[in-house]
Amino acid sequence: MAEAFVHEVHHHQAPAGFVRKYIFSLDHKVIGKQYYFLALFSVFTGMILSWLIRIHLVWPNAHIWGLSLLSPNGAPNGLIKPEYYLSLLTLHGTLMVFFVLTTAPQSGFGNFFLPIQIGAEDMAFPRLNMLSFWVTFAALAVLVSTFFIADGPPIAGWTSYPPLSAVGSVSGPGEGLGQTLWIISIALFCVGSLLGALNFIATTLELRTRGMSLMRMPLTCWSWFITAILGLLSFAVLLGACALLLLDRVGGSSFFVPGGLVISDKIIQHNGGSPLLWQHLFWFFGHPEVYIAILPGMGVTSHILSCFARKPIFGYKVMAYSLMAIGFLSFTVWGHHMFVSGMSPYTGFTFSIFTMAIGVPSAIKTFNWLGTIWGGRIRYTTAMLFALGFVSVFVTGGLSGLFLAQPPLDMYLHATYFVIGHFHLVMGVAAIFGMFAGTYFWFPKMFGRMMNETLGKLHFWATFIGVYCIFMPMHFLGIAGNPRRYSAFTDNFLLPLMPLHEFMTIAALLTGAAQLIFLFNLFWSMFKGEKASQNPWEATSLEWSVPSPPPFDNFDGNYPVVYHDPYEYGVADAAKDYVMQDSPEVIAASGH
Amino acid sequence: MGLALALVIAAFTGISVYIFWAHTWWFPPDISVHGPAMDRQFNLTLVICGIIFVLAQLGLAWFAWKYRDRGDHRKVIYSHGNNKLEATWTTAAAILFIGLNLMGYKSWADTHFTGAAPNALTIQVQGQQFYWYFRYPGPDGKFGPTHVDLVDDAAGNFYGLDRVHDLDAKDDIVTATLGIPVNRPIQLILRSKDVTHSFSVRELRIKQDTVPGMEIPIHFTATEEALKHNGGRYEIACSQLCGMGHYRMRGFVQVMTEADFEKWLQAQAASQ
Amino acid sequence: MATLTHPSPAATPAIHRGGGGRLGGNGFPPGGDGSDFSRRELPSRVYYVGMWVAIAGICMLFAAFTSALVVRQGISNDWARTGVPHILYLNTLILLASSITLELARHSLTVERSQLFKGWLYVTVLLGFSFVAGQLLAWRELAVSGVYLSTNPASSFFYLLTAAHGLHLLGGVAALCYLTFQTRRLARKLKNRVAVDVTALYWHFMDGLWLYILFLLVRSIA
User: Fold this and answer.
1) ∠ CA(B176), CA(B182), CA(B186), 5° rounding?
2) B75 touches chain C (CB under 8 A)
3) Residue A573: its pLDDT value, please?
4) What kind of fold does domain A330-530 have according to CATH?
């Protein structure tokens, strides 16, 4: 509200003091970096959890050093108990989906670059922006705290289905305080996301500079805008669901828990609720959520492919419309997570038609990405490698979705490793590739220095080969019927699959180790990297029209005027082959 | 770089396609009547997706190599797109994807839009942490009522039956193995005692969550093929996270000839 | 093939009209090189957009609650129509009245009548608090007759919906209180009144939302 008032100061000064500059900052660029580093912490924590998961599956008798210090109950002598295994996978999923994939691509890069790319000085509501971050930070703190409580983190998975998650510790260890804290963490996260979504939408609609029409925005802005709308509509529903689940746990209500339940010979005092109600509410959020995770990556990929192929994006309008189509359709498909849940099979079939439909705009985007590099002149920077890698893994991951979208096939493949392979390829790889591409591309602008290209390329190759080695085998495991969320494989039909699991574990550990190259490159370059020029990639969008890093108010008081579409590369000229958006030059043939 | 990327992508494509084609890791045998139709739909999907996979990945690989910057200042093909092409591939994708889905319609309809045959043998399945128990109605063909307060796992009263006062419950047969006769329609009524589980038998090609508060019917018929593998014994693997024992929540289906089944059921009845 | 030309001084580049407001939308004053740029002024429209977006989000939250109610009422036989405490109707009148007084406040927002503005604002705040107090009395009435959150699903929704609405309304009350401290600033510059307008939008939405909730409760619990 206070933003409505004209500030009484005469000069728009940069804030002074360490706290105002770096901790409680109103500057969208600082807040973007804060989100980025929050995501970085979360992804490395989540990755370590995935190592523990993979190690436990193939070497269950390995004593993992240090784990008994963290969790003497869950992992005595460093041996992971079955319930602790479930805690690890619950926290892995929660951290990755929420605190990595919903933060960095949108609130990390989006916060930093949306205002600059549309020619604004900051987001519409900087105070709200700062609040969003700190609420998200609080959510993370609450989540991480579950590691340190006596009963440990919850064991119900990131999807937290009741009754398992609703009846308290009688259903299992970690289902007491741990589950309650999880719900509180997610509820806080919802609030942070909603506030952020509000900011993004208002900023995109109202703060574009002169000449920056919606159809001249870089596709990154489109992706952030549509993602924000998705977030606004879906996180509100998750917040509601969390409130209901919390009330079932501590308020004695029965939204999700039916009557007549007996757990460990104890009669559960609930009546009349529906476990399916949670699933509907959760997945109504959950499906748009995965598109929230991938849309920014698609925007970044379009942005980078065009730049380094030195060609306009193929079919800009179609790309924008397909983002909108994916966003809209994402609200119509949630039931495909519930084909075998007990939901009406007729409803299930309807959901499956919509699910196949949402494959169409995704396919369109893939064709257009190929069309973008066709006939281009590809510059092989690390960012470009990750953008091309994105296309490859997105195709692979997307295609396995076509199997899962069909109810008769999903009946077999549901809750097997086939699903894990599918969603890791699209979320755990493609979306992450989008983040890597964004990092290598925007690092010079964010930190004023260049990252090391050799290390970057090494990182790319190790990761690209590694992720295919980790996740491709999961499809074969799924076909063989390997169920997910099993802490040990003692079944007759699973033991023969162990060699494949061992292969995956080793690939995971090696690929994980390769991420240290990235981490080293990131931090070393921040301090010792070669100083970056204003536009090292010869790119056209407005972030490259300001210094690296940008001044406090982005444009130093000189507001840009936009004359061109965002991807004018390959424009023939002796001097250079691109036209920046704010350049007054006229492009003759196309007249943009 | 372009060549390296192209080769790596091509290599992955080739290796993956080979493993799918060679059935190195594949489905277990089909032992149900409805199974082969589902497998056919899977194979159709695999072929179509496989073709798309190969074309897209090799297309990407080819472009990544062919259109690399060779330092020769060659002009790019400056194009903002091609609406006709967009319309074409959009329509093609829509027809292909939705058509593929519709081809699987019958398979889903046969198992889910129609009920079990009238002469089906009805068996109740109960999932609980971390075991499966099955109930046969006995000679009277009726399931007795269950009482929550009579549930006593230690004493083996998993369903909470009152065999003293409930007439219908007297002849109910509760077993730890799902014995079924071959070639006979079976209807399972799935229920759960505590949290959500999922009844899944790979070879039967069935999976259905068991939801507390719901009684969900599914039906199938085991074929002769079922007697040819593993002595007719197939694993039920819980497929919905249900707590710390989820990984060991295992049961078994035992498919038998009609005669063997009757003998087995009588033996079970005797030991109630 | 696209080629570049450098514009002659007379050439004017094609500009698409974009952004909002007279300021060019991005917070910078129009014209010039901005060397006298001294303060950030956003076009008022952005605050309206923000508030409408917030309203959309809150609508989704209550849509989730509504669908939960409809499903829960339909699936089992333990729904008991515990009845809607009559004080709820009085509270509704109070809330409607507060919307009227808020409008009276808004219309008296000029320098000469700033005291009147403040006065009506205080009345609105008072009515807001009265509403919340009335809701708490309704809860009291239910509790006295043994109806709590856990008693049955109908009562669960009663408490849930009234609590969720009440919390959001208290946020609005806080905003109104803040405005009473800012009367001088608000009255002085026309541009600043957007704060009042946007708060009023929120308040009237809370009003409408309450009417919807009341309808829902009467329909399913009365």
Assistant:
1) 65
2) yes
3) 66
4) Cytochrome C Oxidase; Chain A (1.20.210)
Which of B74, B89, B202 is nearest residue A367 as measured by Cβ atoms?
B89
Contacts of C45 in chain A (CB under 8 A): 206
Q: Is A450 helix (H, G, I), strand (E, B) or coil?
A: coil
CATH code at position B125: 2.60.40.420
C50, C72, C185 ranked by CB distance to A202: nearest = C50
Q: Quick check: A125 and C68 CB within 8 A?
A: no
Torsion-angle region of residue C21: left (phi > 0), alpha (psi -120 to 50) or beta? left
In the prediction, which pLDDT does B82 show? 95
Reported as half-sphere exposure (CB side, CA atoms, 13 A), residue A469 has a value of 18
**Other chains touching B, judged by 3 or more CB pairs under 8 Å:** A, C
Query: For residue range C92-151, what is the model confidence (pLDDT) as tens digits?
Result: 999 999 999 999 999 888 777 888 999 999 999 999 999 999 999 999 999 999 999 999
3-state secondary structure of B244: coil
Per-residue pLDDT, A297: 98
Q: Where are the domains of chain A?
A: 25-258, 330-530, 539-592
Among C101, C81, C104, CA closest to C154:
C81
Q: Which of C41, C47, C64 sits opposite A241 (nearest CB)?
A: C64
pLDDT of residue C29: 42
Does residue B171 form part of some domain? Answer: yes
What is residue A381's DSSP assignment? -
Residues B168 and B261 in one domain: yes
Dihedral of alpha carbons C145, C150, C152, C155, sign: positive
Q: Are B199 and B237 in contact (CB under 8 A)?
A: no
User: Any idea how long chain B is?
Assistant: 272
Quickly state the pLDDT bin for B151 (edges 50, 70, 90). Answer: very high
Tell me whether residues C40 and A591 touch, CB distance under 8 A.
no
Domain match, B121 and B60 both: no
**In Å, how far is B78's CA from the nearest CA of chain C?**
6
Nearest in space to A223 (alpha carbons), one of A153, A121, A305, A324: A324
Among A305, A399, A482, A564, the residue to mutate for chain B (most B Cβ within 10 A): A399
Claim: this prediction has a pTM higher than 0.90: yes
Across A480-486, average pLDDT: 97
pLDDT over 60 (residue B228)? yes
Task: Strands of A228-361 (E only): list them.
Answer: 262-263, 266-267
**CB-CB under 8 Å, B78 with C2:** yes
Q: A571 touching B, CB under 8 A?
A: yes
pLDDT in tens, B62-118: 999 999 999 888 889 999 999 999 999 999 999 999 999 999 999 999 999 999 999
- Cβ contact (<8 Å) for A559 and C2? no
A3, A208, A273: residue with CB nearest C19: A208
Considering the domain delimited by A25-258, tell me its CATH architecture: Up-down Bundle (1.20)
Q: Give dist(CA B53, CA A396) in Å, integer.
A: 7
The boundaries of the domain holding residue B189 are 117-270
Task: pLDDT band for C41, please (50, 70, 90 cuts).
Answer: confident
- Candidates B74, B194, B238; nearest CB to A261: B194
- Give residue-wise pLDDT tens across range A296-312: 999 999 999 999 999 99
Any chain A CB within 8 A of the CB of B248? yes
**Distant-in-sequence, close-in-space partners of B44: CB < 8 Å, separation ≥ 6:** B100, B103
Using DSSP bridges, classify how beta strands B173-175 and B131-136 pair: parallel, antiparallel or unpaired.
antiparallel
Contacts 24+ apart (CB under 8 A), A52-55: A52/A80, A52/A88, A53/A85, A53/A88, A53/A89, A53/A92, A54/A501, A54/A504, A54/A505, A54/A508, A54/A509, A55/A505, A55/A509
Q: Any bridge partners for residue A328, and if so which?
A: none
Domains and CATH numbers, chain C: 44-220 (1.20.120.80)
